[in-house]
Design brief:
The structure holds two protein chains of two kinds. Chain A contains no helices and eleven strands. Chain A is mostly beta strands. Chain A is globular. In chain B, strands 2, 4, 5, 6, 9, 10 and 11 form a seven-stranded mixed beta sheet that branches. In chain B, strands 1-3-8-7 form a four-stranded antiparallel beta sheet, with no helix packed on it. In chain B, β5 (44-49) and β6 (56-57) form a beta hairpin. Chain B has no helices and eleven strands. Chain B is an all-beta fold. Classes of the chains: A mainly beta, B mainly beta. The A-B interface holds A 4, 31-32, 34, 41-46, 49, 51, 89, 93, 95, 98-99, 101-106 and B 4, 40-45, 50, 90, 92, 94, 98-99, 101-107, 109.
Chain lengths: 113, 113
């Protein structure tokens, strides 16, 4: 069964600090891995998409890494801001002719001033 | 600017009522999706559509149906709402091909009393 597990479930850090969120997956056949940011009461917004051959992808202060051998990904947030408070969802895509996405349950990040 | 518009942000319905959730996109995307999101669970796919008048069951289609009469509009129907369908409902779209960004609507929070 395809699964995506994220850790930690929640995280509180001080504004200006860095943090790293983790994602482990068992999805096959692997197509790509995505990170989304979801603000409270809103729909998710795509941050990065990485294929098998991509190890690192950046989007501003967000940097995602992918280790396809160990089936792990991380999302690193640099110099956190209050606006980074959100849920971060890891999503892994399998491709069988059509794309099927498996969603993690997310990490709830809170930035405090 | 990309737009996926869900007709209602909040809805309160009674058990047994027929409920329509509407989603409209302005990106000329072929693929449209309906998910529900519940605390502690990842987004779960209810139905999706790859073309007009096409529909495919997702992982949890029971109690739901969909309609796609026009490319830009994808409707989710709860034939007889039940309390266990209280949830956040999210519509999403993508273009064709792999590694396509998925765009989400703002969500509809449905309460069934």
């Amino acid at each position: 069964k395809n699964q995506v597990e994220q850790s930690p479930q929640s995280l509180i850090i001080l504004e200006g600090k860095n943090c790293t969120l983790q994602c482990n997956y068992t999805v096959s056949p692997f197509s790509n891995l995505r990170w989304y940011k979801q603000d409270t009461g809103r729909g998710p917004v795509s941050l990065t998409i990485m294929t098998f051959s991509e190890n690192t992808k950046s989007n501003g202060r967000y940097t995602a890494t992918l280790d396809a051998d160990t089936k792990q990904s991380s999302l690193h947030i640099t110099a956190s801001q209050l606006s980074d408070s959100a849920s971060y969802i890891c999503v892994v895509s399998a491709y069988f002719g059509n794309e099927k996405l498996t969603f993690g349950t997310g990490t709830r990040l809170t930035i405090i001033p | 600017d990309v737009k996926v518009t869900q007709s209602s942000r909040y809805l309160v319905k009674r058990t047994g009522e027929k409920v329509f959730l509407e989603c409209v996109q302005d990106m000329d995307h072929e693929n449209m999706f309906w998910y529900r999101q519940d605390p502690g669970l990842g987004l779960r796919l209810i139905y999706f559509s790859y073309d007009v008048k096409m529909k495919e069951k997702g992982d949890i289609p029971e109690g739901y149906s969909v309609s796609r009469e026009k490319k830009e509009r994808f409707s989710l129907i709860l034939e007889s709402a039940s309390t266990n369908q209280t949830s956040m409902y999210l519509c999403a779209t993508t273009g064709t091909g792999a590694k396509n960004i998925q765009y989400f609507g703002a969500g509809t929070r449905l309460s069934v009393l």
